[in-house]
What we know:
This protein is mostly helical and 113 residues long. It has helices spanning 2-28, 35-50, 66-76, 79-112, and strands spanning 52-57, 60-65. The chain has one domain.
Amino acid sequence: MAYYETYQWAWLVYLIAALGMYFVVVKFTKYWTGEYVRNYLRLFSAVILFTPAIHTADENTILAPAFIVAFGEFLTADMKAAMAGVLPLLLALFLGLVILAIRAFLKRKAVKS
């Protein structure tokens, strides 16, 4: 049971640190004039920081940040195992890019009107 409590505390610490890092990214890009570049950098950082992946180790299934799963599996196993972390990252990035593209299209359409 101690492992489960440690797991919860580790996730809490990670989420607080990730929120802090995302806050730094937002503050860093606040005064950028290029709106699209600013939005894409914020999207990319949010995807890297907040996308989870399911990882199975020693018959235990755990939830971990996708970039950590991908990097760890790449170092210890092979690229095929690393895809367990890369796939959720790519899916989240694709969905975010679609949302930003639709938002830019609607904004452009509103400006022309």
